[in-house]
């Protein structure tokens, strides 16, 4: 990633709010960041800081109350095939479709490819996530980690400008989660795709991301932006990157109450 190049994604002063029956709740407040081509950009913060809400806004599912989101210099106003999302839920795959059919589905539904071309593209990415032997299996025949690999293949087969991943490994056990992180990095080495990754795990952020944006407790505001090599390196003071992040997230922040307005 070169910060001298033009950003692929720009989030400029974005405030996001949502309503309950009684309240207007501010999820994020004037958040700014830029994502460049081939970045592995991580949004990191405690539960309730607006990470997933921000990801949905980048996906075009939420409209900012304030500020704007630009992808390739065009304002994001709705979902599109240039942004594909991978969620943590295992039920994101239609159970009546095989692995191959699941990966083919968005290609066909979007009109991007048809028939044999869609099948070939699907198999290309199924092979990349090492599931070629399971192409004709159904989701109920797969483990949780395998289902997530199918979801990743489905998103990447569309060859979007940016892959949006919302805590995709949170529901997995520790060993499978580590394996999936390793596989994601190997896949990135192969294709150099751009990913915006949400997590509340400091360890995962340090391993997966090359750039990490720290968000404060609700309403989410930018605390810091850090670079990561994928290793939990120590600075001159002897503190590891994860220790420094922990300090920034949980010790230096003054406790803030969620911004709630009666409506």
From TrEMBL:
Residue ranges constituting the ABC transporter domain according to the UniProt record: 9-242
GO molecular function, one term: ATP binding
SMART domains given in the database record: AAA
Signal sequence residues: none
Protein name, per record: NitT/TauT family transport system ATP-binding protein
Cited InterPro entries: AAA+_ATPase, ABC_transporter-like_ATP-bd, ABC_transporter-like_CS, ABC_transporter_ATP-bind, P-loop_NTPase
Keywords, in A-Z order: ATP-binding, Cell membrane, Membrane, Nucleotide-binding, Transport
Organism expressing this protein natively: Paralcaligenes ureilyticus
Family according to the record: Belongs to the ABC transporter superfamily.
Stored Pfam families: ABC_tran
Lineage: Bacteria, Pseudomonadati, Pseudomonadota, Betaproteobacteria, Burkholderiales
